[in-house]
Amino acid sequence: MKVIWIIAVGLLAACAQAQNVNYTIQETVPGCNILDTFAIANYSHPPACATSGTCVNMTGKVVLITGASTGMGRASAERLAQAGATVVGTSRYPWLYHDVTTFQLWQLEYTSDDSVKQLVSRVGATYGKIDFLYLNAGRQYVGEIANSDLRQVELTINSMVMGHLKVIQAALPLMPKTGYARILQTSSVESQIGAPGYLPYTISKWAMQAMQEVWLTEHLGGKSNIIYSSILPGTVNSSLPQKAVYGCPELYNSQAAQPWYNSYTGSMVLQPEQIGEAVYQIAIDPQPRLRYLAMNDQQYATLIPVWCRRQRLPMEQWYDMAAPEEQAWFQGEWTENTQLNCSAHCNGTEFCGAAPMGEQYTGTYTIGPYK
């Protein structure tokens, strides 16, 4: 039965992607309509607007993408540039990426007010407008509630919540007041369900979804021409695990981290280029949806049972009486993440406090000392 169900999910997902429509899964929890509330991001076939001839022409459009040096942001920048858009991407260290040739890569430090203002002012002075703003920059800190370094938690939230808000506020005056104007943000499936070990990342993604919803309620009835959408990817084979900050930095690049690295390269992941294609198709859609899921068939089959029960059941039942599939998923997440936290290295003590931070970690894919 389980094998048949997974195959059915795969067929449904393939059908949904082929037709670019939503679908409903009833087998997991009766009445579950999770997938009726999202659009399915298309990355595997021509967009529907190509048939009708209504796709937006990106030639002459100015695109600003935060976090574009690697991964999804870079793939999106390259795809939109290929379509004729003028693309400015950002990076904390743009001088490290000499191989970027199809778009501009400018410096941005999300946590700095001055850096945000300088970037947007430069875009305005150079191109005069921002037609498509893609908020993609982010960071990953792996830590559980009891042992997370609060400085790292604060920095993660400041980057992915306050950083996005700063860029939006700075960019809005440059966005057209009529006609085409878009904001897209990279959220996550973790904006819908809390996974163990991802405390600040999950908090940030939930907050981003709330920010989008507040914007929508502030602009009911067509008060703004700006369409603000979210894309919620599952696992993507990007630089995120290599650039993650661990709850126990001593474990950086260690054997203990290998299972977590592997989870970003297995059969359940999407490639950055697939997300790039999905972002491009959202950009050219004359009537884009507001929330898109971007996963492959295996991700749908794994996460939808958990997600459906999370939506339909009282929290007590969902938390205490999870189905075997859910227990296995949560246990797998927890096993991977505890290997990257100091809790796993405390001689059996459950809580050992947050990991130290010092100059010795600078340049080893951590932020170094908090300043």
Automatic annotation (TrEMBL):
Transmembrane segments: none annotated. Belongs to the short-chain dehydrogenases/reductases (SDR) family. The keyword Lyase does not apply. Gene3D superfamilies: NAD(P)-binding Rossmann-like Domain. The keyword Endoplasmic reticulum does not apply. Residues 1-18 form the signal peptide. Keywords: Oxidoreductase, Signal. One of its GO terms (molecular function) is oxidoreductase activity. One of its GO terms (cellular component) is cytosol. PROSITE patterns: PROKAR_LIPOPROTEIN. InterPro entries: NAD(P)-bd_dom_sf (IPR036291), SDR_fam (IPR002347). It holds the Pfam family adh_short. It comes from Apatococcus lobatus. This is Uncharacterized protein. It comes from the Eukaryota.
